[in-house]
TrEMBL record:
Keyword Hydrolase listed: yes
Domain of life: Eukaryota
Record-given protein name: Unsaturated rhamnogalacturonyl hydrolase
Any one GO biological process: carbohydrate metabolic process
Organism: Ceratopteris richardii
Origin organism lineage: Eukaryota, Viridiplantae, Streptophyta, Embryophyta, Tracheophyta
GO molecular function: hydrolase activity
Annotated signal peptide: 1-24
InterPro entries: 6-hairpin_glycosidase_sf (IPR008928), 6hp_glycosidase-like_sf (IPR012341), Glyco_hydro_88 (IPR010905), PolySaccharide_Degr_Enz (IPR052043)
Amino acid sequence: MSRLEKYTVLWAAVVVAMMFGAEATSRGRELKGILPLYVRMANTALQIWNSSGPGKEKWNYERGVLLYGIQEVWKRTQEPKYLQFVKNRTDAFVAPNGTIPTYVMSDYTLDNIRSGTVLLFLWKLTGEIKYKQAADLLREQLKSQPRTKEGGFWHKEVYPYQMWLDGLFMAEPFYAEYAVLFDEPNDFDDIALQFKLMEEHARDPKTGLLYHGYDESRQQAWANPETGTSASFWGRGVGWYFMALVDTLDFFPKDHPERAELIAILQRLAEAVAKVQDPQSGVWWEVLDQGGRKGNYLESSASCMFVYSYAKAVEKGYIRKSSYKKVYKTGYAGIQTQFVQDRPDGGVDLNSTVSVGGLGGNPYRNGTYEYYLSEAVVTNDAKGVGPFLLASLYLHN
């Protein structure tokens, strides 16, 4: 082949690539125009997690948060691929006899309870007994979960006498739904106790915000020796607790004497979180009360959690629409401006999600302002994508 022929072939290939690239870009613009954000984000999630393969996942709360969002998108759209994704991702961990081979009950970590809501969803939908059997295992864990002297669940066996905000979202919505489905009404006293203890010990009287953790023993280096609380108001931690309230109340009996108190807790929290919403961007900071401080940044997962929680709380009548509609409307607009990025294929990416946040452990996490800013910030993290789907479902009707 002559040099001219080679050049001609190469140029033809470039032209074809440009044509297909233009077609893909055009298709992406078309999808952007006609599909709601929850569909575009769900499609991106399926693309990412299908390509990663189930072998890279664990039975943990992250997959539970993601699948919760995807199942809610399926409820809205009835698109089979979303349900199939939820089922496939659950069947990868649940054996035909209802056991969960990668789950170790004796770890007593509340994080492992989160995926239980997906088990209950699939059991109600399909009637397959393995999902109920797997859910029964998680319920058994709660029966023997270590507790503080006052009755609060330890966050994990390896974190003795500690309650974290995270744990309320991991355990209580499942605990409450299970109680309804299998007629265990006395459990609601215990469920209410978990929320009340967390607020009693973690709420700051000045701001109304909740500290990330509480150590009953006051033995942890991160714990205030007088109050037992950690040092900072972590955005996603407060988001977990807020979501836990609005989701647990879905199942809480309307005639239960503690229901009014849970709604009152929600109302106090809603007022406090609204006060730290960033007035310029409409979203929330990684460390909530330190907006504008050097190193702090606007964080997507907490912002999505707050928008979802406010919108749902208004819809359910727990808080006044007149007081909070602007909060979640402005928040959702800010999420789109600050964190959502279009993809050429018509999907979207969710940026600026903190990868993790915790207390204690090894290396030791001391709960300071500097600690929360030291964790990596990532794109399309399950802990952000799941809440974004929930928020988008409420705001894109």
